[in-house]
TrEMBL record:
Organism for this UniProt entry: Mesopusillimonas faecipullorum
PANTHER family, A to Z: L-CYSTINE TRANSPORT SYSTEM PERMEASE PROTEIN TCYL, MEMBRANE COMPONENT OF AMINO ACID ABC TRANSPORTER
TM regions (residue ranges): 12-29, 36-56, 76-104, 169-188, 194-219
UniProt name for this protein: Ectoine/hydroxyectoine ABC transporter permease subunit EhuD
Keyword annotations from UniProtKB, A to Z: Amino-acid transport, Cell membrane, Membrane, Transmembrane, Transmembrane helix, Transport
Compartments (UniProt record): Cell inner membrane; Cell membrane
Domain of life, source organism: Bacteria
PROSITE patterns: ABC_TM1 (PS50928)
CDD domains in the cross-refs: TM_PBP2 (cd06261)
SUPFAM superfamilies linked to this entry: MetI-like
Mode of membrane association: Multi-pass membrane protein
Domain ABC transmembrane type-1, chain residue ranges per copy: 28-216
Keyword Magnesium: no
Length: 228
């Protein structure tokens, strides 16, 4: 007997777990795709919001700040439902996966914009002046001098938000995206055994989070650029 199960029952659980593993891994693939797509959108939009909010013109900075605050202060599910159910009323119909990735990207772009802002402010003004003295145009100086230094400082924070996005991917199940947790739930619905698939899904998420956390720690231990 082991945990109240006979050897035969325990053996049967292992066989069932092995049989559903390929299905769960396909759900994991969708989870990874949604995480990467959502993070890519958030990274690009977050940088754009950070630049717009830092603009010297109020007509540019204030709308960017309002949009960023709205995205940060409203729940992800509300934004997801709006994109999936409201936009079709205006003739905009997006695939479920794209809707989910866009919702994740919009939500986290507001958080990443503050991360970018902190990183850019940590780069001294002298770096901008040095880039101009070398004959670089402002855009080129930002791209090749300022932004790389800022990214080195905020890489750990970006990694933490990548982990957070992966944990929010299960919310996309409300628009019928078959990610890992939703696949495990469907298996439980059809076999009346929720313990095995949900436990496996939890362990897979744990391994994924630990791997991301290890990557973040490696980035944190990298030498940081000297602060002026």
């Amino acid at each position: 007997m082991l945990f109240g199960l006979s050897w035969d029952a325990d053996h049967g659980h292992w066989l069932f777990a092995w049989s559903i593993l390929p299905i769960l891994l396909r759900g994991l693939l969708v989870t990874l795709q949604a995480t990467i797509a959502g993070f890519a959108i958030a990274a690009v939009l977050g940088l754009l919001f950070a630049m717009l909010k830092a603009a010297p013109w109020r007509l540019v900075a204030w709308p960017a700040r309002l949009i960023s605050e709205f995205l940060r202060d409203t729940p992800l599910l509300v934004q997801l439902f709006f994109l999936y159910y409201v936009l079709p009323d205006f003739g905009i119909v997006l695939p479920a996966f794209l809707t989910g990735a866009l919702a994740l990207g919009l939500q986290y772009s507001a958080y990443l914009s503050e991360v970018y802002r902190a990183g850019l402010q940590a780069v001294s003004l002298g770096q901008t002046q040095a880039a101009l003295a070398l004959g670089l145009k402002p855009i080129a100086g930002f791209r090749y001098v300022i932004l790389p230094q800022a990214l080195k400082r905020i890489l750990p924070a970006l990694g933490n938000y990548l982990i957070s996005i992966s944990k929010d991917v299960p919310l996309l199940g409300v628009v019928a995206i078959l990610e890992l947790l939703n696949v495990a739930r469907i298996i439980g619905d059809r076999t009346y055994d929720y313990f095995t698939p949900l436990t496996m899904a939890g362990l897979i998420y744990l391994i994924l989070s630990l791997a991301c956390a290890a990557l973040v720690r490696c980035l944190e231990q990298r030498p940081q650029p000297p602060r002026a």
